[in-house]
Amino acid sequence: MIDWREIDTVLLDMDGTLLDLHFDSHFWLEHLPRRYRELHQLDEASQEALKARIVGEQGTLNWYSLAYWSRELGVDIVALKREVQHLIGLRSDALDFLKWLKQAHPRVILATNADRASLALKLPLTGLESYLDAIVSSEDVGAAKEEQAFWFALQEIEAFDPARTLFIDDNASVLESAREFGIKHLLGIKQPDSQRPEKELQEFIALDRFAQLLPEQLPMSS
């Protein structure tokens, strides 16, 4: 599927790619609306209205900003996330893939829309950081991955060659944005949320397991 001799850089999404998206789905669409209603002593209609409001921000920097939602809703989002942090976990064979990458040649960069507060919660619980050469958040550059500005800013930071870069993400809009920028090797994720049905990515190959990417033998170092 991938000729690793053609890859110098691997860009990886976090939520839904390396980590099971179940935590985020549960938090934003179930736990937060319910706790918001409880904390503010509101009716059930307000809970449903909040769900619609959250979904309405999808794809924007606000959607990914814990500070924004804390401010807008008058709650401590990080504290509420900690209430269900036991749901944070790696997807299937993500750890095996990261271990393989560490032994192979590519530079591995976490390219994520998660803000720094989310990273501060998730990285210590998952151990991802020890397998990464760099972490770039959309918060760092002031643009979400859905925007071209993110990719131009990322290239300023990391100076990667789009023609020799593999990018894996569960979000079709993000993959389309990366393709527009010129990243050559693009892969999606078939089931980002272990508790929800598989997704159709019509224009991109979607991975079931990272093992599909591994060669029978490690690539020879040049």
From TrEMBL:
<dbReference type="InterPro" id="IPR036412">
    <property type="entry name" value="HAD-like_sf"/>
</dbReference>
<protein>
    <submittedName>
        <fullName>GMP/IMP nucleotidase</fullName>
        <ecNumber>3.1.3.5</ecNumber>
    </submittedName>
</protein>
<keyword id="KW-0378">Hydrolase</keyword>
<dbReference type="InterPro" id="IPR023214">
    <property type="entry name" value="HAD_sf"/>
</dbReference>
<dbReference type="Pfam" id="PF00702">
    <property type="entry name" value="Hydrolase"/>
</dbReference>
<dbReference type="InterPro" id="IPR006439">
    <property type="entry name" value="HAD-SF_hydro_IA"/>
</dbReference>
<dbReference type="GO" id="GO:0008253">
    <property type="term" value="F:5'-nucleotidase activity"/>
</dbReference>
